[in-house]
UniProtKB/TrEMBL annotation:
This is DUF3868 domain-containing protein. The keyword Flavoprotein does not apply. The lineage of its organism: Bacteria, Pseudomonadati, Bacteroidota, Bacteroidia, Bacteroidales. Pfam families: DUF3868. Gene3D superfamilies: Tetratricopeptide repeat domain. Residues 1-22 form the signal peptide. Keywords: Signal. Residues 21-99 form the DUF3868 domain. It comes from Phocaeicola coprocola.
Amino acid sequence: MKKTIFILATLLGTTGMSEAVAQDTKDILPGVSVENFNMNRNGKYLTVTMDIDLSELDVNSNRAVLLTPRLANGTDSIDLPSVGIYGRRRYYYYIRNGISTISGETEKSFKASDKPGQLEYDNHIPYENWMDGATLKFHRSDWGCCQEILAEYEGLLGRHREVFFPELVFVQPKAEVLKSRSLSGSAYIDFPVNRTVIYPDYRRNTVELGKIQATIDSVRSDKDVTITSVWLKGFASPESPYKHNTDLAIGRTAALKKHIGQLYHFADSVIRTDYEPEDWAGLRRYVEQSDMTHCSEILAMIDSDMEPDAKEAKIKRTYPDEYRFMLKKFYPALRHTDYRIDYTIRKFSDVEEIKRIMEERPQKLSLNEFYLVAGKYEPGTDEFTDVFETAVRMFPNDEVANLNAANAAIRRDDFAAARRYLNKAGDSAEAVYARGALAVREDDIDTARRYLTKAKEMGLEKAALTLKELDERQK
C-alpha cells in the first residue's frame, strides 16, 4: 500500500527546558540577588520567572538603577520588561520632565524609598526559533543626570534549550473504494413445537423481532446509507433427529425472511438465508463455561466424530442428569437466528460536513475522512488529538489508526496512551520510527537509537535525519 505521510514539525508548541544558572544567583549583580529562576517554553511563549531580592540595593537620591533581563543568541536579542528603582531627586526630575520611566511603558518602577525587599518577576514573550540556545543575562545600568549611564553590570541567569522533540510521521490511510459496513446480532424467535410459522405476539417474539427491526431501522432511515443485504441464518437445538432439525432450521429461516420482506418490501435478492440444523458449537460454549459434573467428558463427546444423532443419544444415555440440565438451561438458547445487515455509506469530502458527522455519527466516516479533518487543525491542539482518538475508537484494530493515535499521544506527552496504541500499530517503518520517537521523549536514548536505526534500515528517510540530530544533541 502506498502511504502518504506528513511530518509534525519539531518545535510546534513544545515545552522547552533551561540549563542551570551559570553562577550563584545570590551575587548576580551588585546589590541584587535572584532566587527560584525558571525559564521555560510554554506553547507559543517563552516564560521567565524569578524572585528578585532588592533588599541590599542602595540607590543614591540623584541616581536611577535599571534592571533588565536580556535574551541574546548571536546577533539576535530582545530585552524583557525592566525593573526601575529611582532615587528621590531623580524620580521627581523625571516626573517634572514628563518622563514616567526610562525604558518605557512595560517597566515596573519604584521610588527607592518604596521599593520592595522581594519582587516576583513573571513575564512571557512570543517564542522565536533563534531563542533555542539563547542566554538570558541580567543587566544593571546606573543612570545619573542628563540621561547619562554612569555604570553597567551584567550577570548570567541561564540558557534556554529546547527539549528534543523528534518530528512525528503521520500516515494517511488508504481511501476506501466502497465504504462497506455491517451490523449483526442474534434473535431468539419462539415457534410452537415443530412449527415453522412466526407468531409476532408469541412469548417474547415481540422483543426478539424488534431487535432485528431496530437494527434495520437504524440504517434504513439514514439518507447517507444504502442497505445491500439482510443475511439470516437459522439454528436449531440437537434434541430431535437431525433430518427433522434440518427441516425446522430451513423452514423457520424462510418464515423470518418472509416476515421481514413483508415489513420492508425488500427485493427478494436483498434477503439472503442460511441455516445450521444443530448448533453444536453453541452447546460447546455453554458446557465449557459451566461447572457441571462430567463437563470434560461431555465436551469430549461433543468434539467426537460421531454422527449428530448418535452423539446426542450417547450424552443423554451416559449422563442423564447433566442432559436434563442442558435441555432446560442451554438448549433454548441454541434455537436462534443470527442476522447481519450489510450496507454502504456515501463518501464525504467537505471538511465542515465531516466535522459535523464526526460529532453526531463518527461510525459513518472512513479513516481517510478522519485524516482530512485532522489536517485542518494545528498539531497538538485538543481538536487535532480528538480526531485521531475518535478514529481509533471507530477502527480499534486498524494499524494506521493506532499509529496516528500514538503519534498524537506522543505529541501531548501522554506516553501511556502512546504505548497502548503502538502495541496495535504493526511493524511498518513508520510504526518502528514512532517507537523510537517515544523512547526519545522518555529519555531512553539507547532504545531510541535501536528503533530509529531499524526504521532507517527499512528505508524511512526521516529516521536517518532524526538519528543525525540526536547525535548532534548528545555531543
